[in-house]
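Here's my example:
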Amino acid sequence: MLFNNFKKLPAIFFDRDGVITIPVDLNGKGFAPRNLNDFKFYNDAKDSLLRTRAAGFFNVVVSNQPDVSSGLLSLNMLESMNTVLRHSLALDEVINCPHNSSDHCLCRKPKPGMIYAAAEKFGIDLSHSWIVGDRDGDIAAGSSAGLKTIFIDRNWLEETGSMAKFKCKSLKEAVDLIITGNF
């Protein structure tokens, strides 16, 4: 940090697939799209991120993308998707973990590595920040980093949201909760 009186930013960390973008549903489980034709936003995504930015939050996407490691998604396609995100939504940063669970990296959620990297790079105040996710791993990563947690229940198999402080049915509902402070 360059200045001792530098004020740290509050942020909202958003998972990508299942929170901002619509996953491909296969037998009750949501999977990341692998091409731009399947890369679509939820209807409430654009407005929700504009609202959080207007409320003074730094907007960061933190997303596991293991299809890169397994060869099902090229880095070029992932970067094309990131470009669409950056140009279409009020996002300040997009961070991806391209590893799968067998890589044992520090960035893959449920580990908080992507959150810590963004906090260090941008001076984010984790104690006044949130994570919004649709997977238990998102909530675990946020909890480990000291974030307030919101689980969006998309009715995925094996995802309970039981560790989350709050549960919602949509991104709009999560953002309403954060902005209004009506807990």
Q: What stands out?
A: The chain has one domain: 15-24+39-180.
